[in-house]
Amino acid sequence: MTDNAITPSLMHYPWQKAQWQMLDDLAERERLPHALLLAGPEFVGKQQFATALSARLICDFPLAGFACGNCKQCLLFKAGSHPDFLRVEPEDSGKAIRIDPVRELGQFLGKTAMQGGRKVVVINPAEAMNQSAANALLKNLEEPARDTYILLVSHELSRLPATVRSRCRKVTFPLPSHDESSRWLAQVTAKSEGLAELMEYAADRPLLALRFLESDLLQQRQAFEQLLDKVSSGAIKPLSAAEQCVNTPSVMAVDWLYNRVSMAIKSGQLGSEQVMSFRFLDKLVQVKKRLFSTANPNINLLWEELMLDWQHLSR
Ligand SMILES: [Zn+2]
After folding, report:
1. Which CATH number characterizes residue 118's domain?
2. How far is the CA of 280 from the centre of ligand 1 (A)?
3. How buried is residue 272: exposed, middle or buried, by Cβ count under 10 Å (0-12/13-18/19+)?
4. CA of 101 to the centre of ligand 1 (A)
5. Pfam families in the record, alphabetically (predicted)?
6. How many domains does the chain have?
7. What would the pLDDT profile of 151-188 be if each residue is shown by its tens digit?
8. How many angstroms separate the alpha carbon of residue 25 from the centre of ligand 1?
């Protein structure tokens, strides 16, 4: 049966079975909406789901609800060269999706399918579209061409214009349960030691935990947490700490700081500074937006400001 085994990259994760069955069933009955909004926290596998669903829609001979992995369409898809599949992403991660790629998407959807079947576009993450890109997309959402599907992947729905949201069928991807994530992680890594700490750092997001394992991100995060401790205790000056942050991935480190402040609020560590702590959380959300939307943010200045705030809050 190995010849008929489904290619793992064309499958969903174990915790996405319900969403898959629902959409597969709609596709089977030719009732799949033209625009789907796959929404949920980052690192729960929405992107993989979108890829697997695209392949499923493009495949000539789906097998048990999945792309077969062996037909001409699947081979082209797996090689990354299927002419009727388009992925729209920011040029650099964390940057905006501008209008040009969305215009190209419109042209792509307007043409007849090269392979005669369906055409699929994945936009990931959809909230990275700037205002003019989102406006350009509206026309495609309003007047969908036959046999075309637009899959929008979104980690932060609130950053997506309501006009775009309202024209898509939303499918939500909640965080899998702690047990389910842990089980999966133990399985794919063939490890059990240290997984609990890893899952805690990854806030129970299974793919983030995996990424921590595969890269030096875990070390980076530990170093960052220690840096925060040192700033609190006065062992290091905020401005020196800021210098050390410059080489840490900023968007992620802002999340780490957000997490740290939320935990401190919950545990009552910042008791007398409640209002300021919440203001700081708001500020971190704004900082993250700025990091997404500004071409060349001044990272050094940014961290100087955040570290001074953190010192003020936590000492
Ligand atoms: Zn196939």
Report:
1. 3.40.50.300
2. 50
3. exposed
4. 27
5. DNA_pol3_delta2
6. 2
7. 999 999 999 999 999 999 999 999 999 999 999 999 88
8. 17
